[in-house]
Amino acid sequence: MKTRTLLLIVIFISAGVSCLAQDTAFLQNAFKRLEQQPAQEKVYLHLDKPNYGYGDTIWYKAYTVTGQKHRLSTLSGVLYVELISPADSLIARQTVPMVSGIGWSEIPLAHSLKQGIYRIRAYTRWMLNNGPGYFYDQCVRIGGLQPQIIKQAVQTRLDVQFFPEGGQMVYGVRSRVAIKALGANGLGQNIKGTIEDNTGNVVADFETHHLGMGEFALTPAPGKSYRAKIDAPGETTWMAELPRAQEIGYVLALNNSDADSIYLRVATNETTLTRDKGRAFFIIGQNGGKVFYTTRGELNGTAYAAKVEKSRFPDGIVQFTLFGQSGEPLAERIAFVDNTNEMKLSVGTDKADYKTREKVQIALGITDSSVNTARASFSVAVINENSVQQDENAESTILNNLLLTSELKGYIEQPNYYFTNKSDQARADLDNLMLTQGYRRYEWKRVLDNKFEPLVYKPETSLELSGTLATPAGKPIPHGSVTLAATKEGIFRDTVADDAGRFTFTGLYLTDTSTVVLRARKANKGSNVKIKADVPDYPAITPAGNINEAPVIIDTSKQTPAAKQYIQYQQAQKTESQKYGISLKTVSIKGYKRPPKPDLTRSSNLHGGGNADRVIMGKDLGYCINLSDCLGDKLVGIGFRGMSVIVDGVNIGVGRIDDVSPNEIYSIEVLYRTFSKSVYGSSISKAGALIITTKNGSENEETVKVPETAAQLQYNQYALAQRQDSMKYGKTLKTVTITGLKRPQQPVIPNSSNLHGGGNADQVIMADDMGIAANLEDGLRRKIFGVTFDANGVPVNLRGNGARMSVIVDGVTLTNTSINDVNVLDVYSVEVLRTSAARAIYGSSIDAGGALVITTKRGTGVTKTDAKQNIAQLQYNRYAVAQKRDSLKNGRTLKTVTITGRKRPKQPELINSSNLNGPGHANQVLMYDQLDNCIDLADCLNGKVPGVTFDGAGNAKPMRSHSGNAQVKYMRVIVDGVMLDPEATLNDVNASDIYSIEVLRSSAYLAIYGSNAPLGAFVITTKRGGEKGTAYFTQAQPNGIMNFPFTGFYKAKAFYMPKYQHPIGTKDLDNRTTVYWNPNIITDKDGKALLEFYNNDSKGSYRVVVEGIDENGTLGRAVYHYKVE
After folding, report:
1. Which parts pass through the membrane (predicted)?
2. pLDDT of 854 above 50
């Protein structure tokens, strides 16, 4: 093909775009939008070394910068630094003060930490607007060697990807295609192979050379497709498809091998030229949101070239974008510009060789005359290389982080290789990285469409405390006065709430965790005020892996077990069908409308409602006395009698099918195949499970059968006898239909203490249903089913072998108690729990026959009454009844004795608790203010949790043995709804970040967790709570006073530097791996600084690393070595 050429009209714009023609109005608008966007911040931490030992300390200096010139940021005065475990749980979080973009601190490492790859994450609140993908996120190894595996193995075959230069291939246009191969560990792996077209002809070959990256050239022919034949070590040869070429389009290519210039090339084919001839195009080059290069041309040929001087751009990544005449992005290419603009540093010692404990003097100087007049801030680390193993190519530095890795998507392997190696091969490898790694910072389509995400978070210049004033019922209190007092720091502030009851204290400078006292009053000086202090809105911890990629966030707090397991179920179904099934041709059947699928949204099936081997609806069971009789005809050939029975999410045991009344059933889901049972593991029997949803549990059916009255049971018995008789004598009788009652709306029972939830019971009797009664027994006898009362008024379960039932009054459980001890006039509702399914959640905490859960009118918080039926009152009622009987017996009447009961303390608000039993339904609840100031959480809990022991590693065990999963050795830890690995300990959770701990020890509370937590669990809710704006601290009583645990700035410690003026005088062995650390080195007016320290007792090669930045944003780094003999 004959190539045409075009004379390009090149327009260079050093500041703004005012000289562009009118047809570039869309670009002018885009540039203005870019200029109006606030600056983004970056964070870099200089760590003293790459890996650490147990009990070691991570020393770091933080730099925050903005803009393409990396000037120190004055936006944020607060930085958050986190240490994250290999299990993606928070170990420590520090709040660091930043002054003009600089701050420093240290993270002490506990001896109890487990060996593994940990992460250090750092961010400002301003950075939250862009998400976790923009945070500083660095891996370090604790207790071992340098990190080698970053991503967990999730695939067995290599992941091979192809990246056409500019984003696409076009028929007839020669293109570079980059290739990247990743092993199962997420790291690059070199491969080789050939490229074949769809006819089998080999058109190119390739071989990767560095970290699985390489390239090849290809000119796709019209109508042909291409694939790669891949030969990888340890694998059989296999094929991978290449992206299909386009019939119409453009290819944007560049050559970055020249030291001073970048050569751009735009190419297309004749088909595109015919369509777009004479139309304008534009190429824009930008860095950090600022445009440094523009060019305009008209399409009169198929190939175009332009030369761009690198001196126009700052160091770092430049994004070139090709736009069409209408402003649509057509192609994109990024390149790395290295103008060697970093500071030139000189580092030297007063001697070449030293002895142990000898004094060392290091002279630091800026040798570049153009920048040595600017003030610069440096940090210096000196380590013994013989004690700290490291890989210089994998090292994170101030140069490769701020110029390279912070600008790219995904994990960058060996980033320092591209900076320490200046060979032609290294520059070619860096260009392949640009071809295979996505640019993260700016997307032109979003700019052109003016679709920027709203800025939710403002820069945080200082610490602040905010909250809301409200009435006990939650209504905001406007214009109330609020006083803040921090006596340790001598801080006293006051403010006034706004119209919505909101208040804010800014400019707080508190250290560590300080107890702040908040006092609030209404505008009329009233003290009946609830203070809601906002919880800090810390970002969620994203999983490891490609740490720079923002993951998909799933709100697990609203996700049912069905949603979590459905994908696994589908895959298992597919696997089984492929294993055993036969693929048949598709057959279309017309004229039959499938009946609607039953609504099983309330099912507790972990696969999801309806996803079972068999589904039987309650209405299809027929009439039977025992449920097993009904299922005998429905499940022929299936051994259902040996299956586990799960009723409304509660596993009541194996074979206990007849403990459930057939009349109470809404649906039964049968799981007996292997893949169906697998999700339940050992928590169900080998035969499978019957997942039963009761009518109370489903709440879907409008019309149901009459409740289980004596008449109904008699009729069922009659119907069964008739059916047997008809089968015996060959007679078929007419079907007798009993029309069910329309189910009334479930009553609302505020503050019910029923662990199943208010109204979820075998039977609910409201006060209005009892009519006029002399006592509670009299009121219940005519309404309650399956329950009678003994001579003393104690309830007895008729279907539970006459076992007694407990009485639970407003959450207080009383055993062997007369129902008449409760004043019938004070009763709001009675919930009857008598079946096995209903009793299971309570375990041994109630009598064997079940319980009557009574909610009093006072207990609802809705209706007022004269007296609260608490324990003391119940005891007095019992006493009064006995006295009355005694007086009647002996003819004496005694005076009334009034016993005032102690008011039950208000249960703390646990609105964000992930406890599956319900917030606060636990054997014990510990709030944040009950935890002492301690490093390890297990130390905080030791002695505070009855019946539980703690070992030195932070594992917890109940004193009483439990049967269950033998692989689970300790109580499980659940943090914000996430159950940590069985190997995780309490010490993996930062004690200062905890809002509440719910301790689950008894079988009643553990039943819902099944085999996952057989020994118990700690349900931990962190201070970050739930969704933004919903999480807060509050006091137990709305009295206008609250002690608030405010997390202040971490109080940094000074690095210990011994002075060995008399070496023989100190006998203690000094084997510190970090010999010297100084985060606060400021050069003088001549750009110089002098450092002094002493060597320790370790011989070998000592490595000096200097990193820093000046007030103009110029970056500097130097490495120096000396020996200690």
Report:
1. none
2. yes
